[in-house]
Structures are given as C-alpha cells and as structure tokens.
C-alpha cells in the first residue's frame, strides 16, 4: 500500500505518534533554551542532548506532531515513498529556526539556507566522514556562535507554533522596525534612493530591449 503515493498511509503504520485528530483539545506550551545553536533545556530544566530529544519526542507524540509523508530521490536513482515519524525533530527544527531568525543576520542566514540541503544530502548518502562534509560543518558551526536564547512554542493537534523568542544576542531592534517614532534610526525617505540604485541594473537592461 505504501508503494502507491496516491494512497493515504493507514494509521496503523505509525508507531511513535498519535494522529492529530486524537490529540488533546488543549494546547501544550513549552520553552526551549539554546546555547551556540544547541538546544540545552526545556522549560528551564537543563538536559543532555539525548534526554532533551527523548522529552521532545514524548511531547510531540502526545500532540500528534511529526508525521511526514514524502517521495524521496534515492542515491541509487529511483524515487521512493517514505513515511516517517519525527516528533522531537519537528519541534526542535521549528524552535531552532525561530531563535536563528533573531540572532543570524541576513547574509549568514541566507548562506546557511543554501548550504543545508547540500549538508543534508551528504549525510543522507553516507558521506559523514567526507572532507566536504567537514568543510560545511566548520561553516555551520561558525554561524551558530551567537545563536542563543529561548523560544516558546505552542503544540496543538499536529502543529508547532512559535509564540515567542528572545535572546541576549538578538539583532532585532524595535527602534529600527517602527514606523512611528524611530528617533532617526530609519527614515522612510531613505528608501527612495535605495530603490533607484537597486533598480539600476534592470533599467539598463530595459533600455537595451
């Protein structure tokens, strides 16, 4: 049955999670703490990596989180349907992206997004000990030096929702993003010159036809 990607996977194939429909009607709110990109605590309790993931697996399981149905491109060249359960991983990924959103600057964030598919592909294909994986690892580790803080999440019927994030290394500034009283930090009139210069290449191409 799983070989046909058009057919829904039956509920009995899932061993680690309950279905979202069977999850509690009351959401679960948790807080995950990060240091240098690594999750180190849940609700203020310091935990080892293994214990932390096991705890998140339990929380995800109870809230119907982490069921994934996808078609993969195998290393050998064929496509294969995969049905996976990763309750803890789903929660952790959402939290990690949330803390990165306020601690990584735009350039570093975009570069990391470009590198991660290649990094994941190397691991998936069995090249953990390859020099190219180690090169990417060094860049990723460097990107995580200031990724610390806490993320609050709401777990509810298969969903992981970010409801708060804060960090002592945050790059987010309410003075910069305000459109009211910005105290000179950002003048909307400055955008006119930026837009004009940013479109110079396109205007040049348009003249050529």
Automatic annotation (TrEMBL):
Domain called Arginosuccinate synthase C-terminal: residue spans: 1-203
GO molecular function, one term: ATP binding
UniProt keyword ATP-binding present: yes
A GO-annotated cellular component: cytoplasm
Keywords in alphabetical order: Amino-acid biosynthesis, Arginine biosynthesis, ATP-binding, Ligase, Nucleotide-binding
Organism superkingdom: Bacteria
Enzyme Commission designation: 6.3.4.5
UniProt gene name: argG_1
Subunit structure: Homotetramer.
Protein name in the entry: argininosuccinate synthase
A GO biological-process term: argininosuccinate metabolic process
SUPFAM superfamilies in alphabetical order: Argininosuccinate synthetase, C-terminal domain
Cited Pfam families: Arginosuc_syn_C
Enzyme class: ligase
Biological or metabolic pathway of the protein: Amino-acid biosynthesis; L-arginine biosynthesis; L-arginine from L-ornithine and carbamoyl phosphate: step 2/3
């Amino acid at each position: 049955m799983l070989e046909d990607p058009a057919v829904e996977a039956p509920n009995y194939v899932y061993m680690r999670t309950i279905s979202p429909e069977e999850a509690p009607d009351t959401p679960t709110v948790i807080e995950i703490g990060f240091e240098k990109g690594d999750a180190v605590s849940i609700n203020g309790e310091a935990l080892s990596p293994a214990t932390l993931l096991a705890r998140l697996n339990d929380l995800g399981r109870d809230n119907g989180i982490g069921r994934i149905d996808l078609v993969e491109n195998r290393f050998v060249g064929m496509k294969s349907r995969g049905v996976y359960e990763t309750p803890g991983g789903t929660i952790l990924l959402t939290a990690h992206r949330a803390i990165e959103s306020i601690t990584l600057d735009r350039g570093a964030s975009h570069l990391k997004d470009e590198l991660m598919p290649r990094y994941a592909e190397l691991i998936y294909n069995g090249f953990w000990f390859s020099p190219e994986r180690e090169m990417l690892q060094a860049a990723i580790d460097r990107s995580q030096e200031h990724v610390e803080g806490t993320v609050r999440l709401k777990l509810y019927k298969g969903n992981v929702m970010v409801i708060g994030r804060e960090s002592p290394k945050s790059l987010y500034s309410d003075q910069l993003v305000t459109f009211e009283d910005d105290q000179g930090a950002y003048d909307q009139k400055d955008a006119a010159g930026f837009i004009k210069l940013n479109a110079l290449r396109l205007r040049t191409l348009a003249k050529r036809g």
